[in-house]
Every structure is written in structure tokens, then in C-alpha cells.
Design a protein that fits this description.
alpha+beta, Aminopeptidase, 7-stranded mixed β-sheet, 6-stranded mixed β-sheet, 11 helices, globular, PG_Glycine_Bridge_Synth
Length: 354
Amino acid sequence: MNSRAQPFVHEAAALSVRTLDAAEAARWDTYVAAHPGATFFHRAGWKRVIEDAFAHRTHFLLAERAGEIVGVLPLAEIKSRLFGHSLGSLPFCAYGGILADDDEAARALDAAAQALATRLGVGALEYRNQVAQHPDWPTKDLYVTFKKAIAPEVEANMNAIPRKQRAMVRKGIKAGLVGEIDGDTRRFFEAYSASVHRLGTPVFSRRFFRLLKDAFGDDCEVLTITLKGEVIASVISFYFRDEVLPYYGGGTDAARAVAGNDFMYWDLMRRACERGLKVFDFGRSKRGTGAFDFKKNWGFEPTPLHYEYFLVADSTVPEINPLNPKYRLFIEAWKRMPRALANAIGPHIVKNLG
């Protein structure tokens, strides 16, 4: 349990809801691994990552009945003078929300989260659901996810890529690009920081990525693409059951000329196929963005994500994202900032964006 917060307990009949104790992480993860609706972002390791990387308070709630876990809800609280006060499942993650064995456990976790949000006085409680849970709550129709089955044969996956995109992959192959699995995040950060700087987006800290590797081990993998020993692109991917999810990635300035990013995702897909994985989760994107179009070009179809909000102090759904017009000037100024300075300042901003 987070030592900075008092335990939060909500009881209903024979079922109880309380906060996770640090010593119970393995129990939590065993439940998550077995639940059909679970995602990588429900894992207990996010508690330590969010606390240690960003110094945010976490409230990982678990529901128990007769000593057995029957539901979980990972929550984290962000309190920022610039971006407001929120409680969500889960900041910095594409998916989240309640996992439960039955309606009673789900209702108890939901009630506990709403009561906690009210007690904390946050602007809003946010659930990042893949399936709608609260049709009466305000929602944000902005994010979609892209998932596709991985064919059992490598060549079948190549042939399933639409012709124009397949040509880009072959361009990277012809250029002599090579994929390598890294044991650390140093080369990844070189490519990632260059990419987000071009987009005008604040960068996460090096420490954040090191913590991801430490918390999730082999389930957090770095694939780096090189050309004659020089870094071209790199991606951090998460593995959960039979799925692979490339989550953070980017390319250096040299990537475009040799289709570095295109080759990178193909190399990841090829490796996933050879490992016998079944699903390639291209992750979330905002509608109307280049990332959305890029994934469509691969033949992936978007599925809406249901980000739902229980408003406490806020009167409207928060709009903290780069598509908000009020951030346009900030983004353009950030692109012109020297990258070394952006890398130094960025982590202090992005930790409050969630």
C-alpha cells in the first residue's frame, strides 16, 4: 500500500474492497492473468512505475470475498496546478477500468472509486474502458484502438499488408535495416526523444523507461532498428498472454529515407509470429492524426475506446491532449526548442498529462 495514503475501505455485505498491499502484487497479477477482460495495463507493476517515475499517489483497489480476489481496479491520482486534479484507471495507459468476477464485485469497486474521487475532491474520475460500462456518463469520443490477428505463417502476414504499405516495408528490407533486441533503453531513448521532439511533444524521462524494464522484465522488450550500426528507430513493446503491444516508439531523422518505422513494426510482427503470438495490438491513437492514418495503412481497422467520466468538481470532460487548440502555440514552440533542453524540461511537464 502507498505509504503516503491511508487505506481506503468500502464494505458491502460479505464482500470487501480495500487497497492493495505491496506484498500482494503477485496475488493481484495472478488474478489479472486469469481474467478474460484483463490487459497489460491492469498489472500491479504499474503501481510502482507510476509512484517511482512520477511521484503520483496510487489507489489500487481489490475486492475480496471469503479471502479470494473477485475484482480489481487500478487507480492513480494526478494533482497538477497546470492540468488539474484527476483520478483515473489508468493514467499513462491505453486501457484500464474495472475487472470483476460478477456484478456485485463490479458495483462495489465502482462505488468505492466514486466515493474516493469525491473524498479527494478531484475534477473527474476517468475509466479507460474497451467496452462501455456507463452509458449515462460523459464520454470522450477521441481514442480508438487497432488490433489484428497474427497469421501463423510469416509470409501470410507480409501478404496481408496493403500493397503501398508493403512496399514501404520492402524498402526498409532492401536498405539493409537490421532489428536487434536491446537489454536496456539507451538506444531506444535516442530514437524516441528525436521523434517526439519533431512532434512538439514533451518527452518522458529516461528513468521512466528504465522502471518499465525493471518492473515488467521480459514482458517489456526493446527492439532497435539499425543501419550499418547506426540507430534508425526503436520501440518498447509489452507482451501479455498471446498479444504484443508496441507502445512507445520513434525514429531518428534518418528513419524516413529508409522506411525505418515501417520496417520496425514489420520486424516486430515477424518476431511475434515466430513466437506463436496471436494478436498484434497497434495500440490507441487519436482520430484525425498521422498515427491513426499510419495504422489504417497497415490494414488495421479502428475500434472505439470508451473513456468515461464521473464528474466531481469539473463541469465538463477534461480536454488535455495535443488536439486541443489552446496547446497549438505550445507545440510549435516546443518543436523549435533545442532537443537537449526539451529532454531536460519535458519530464516535468509530461508527468502531469497522464
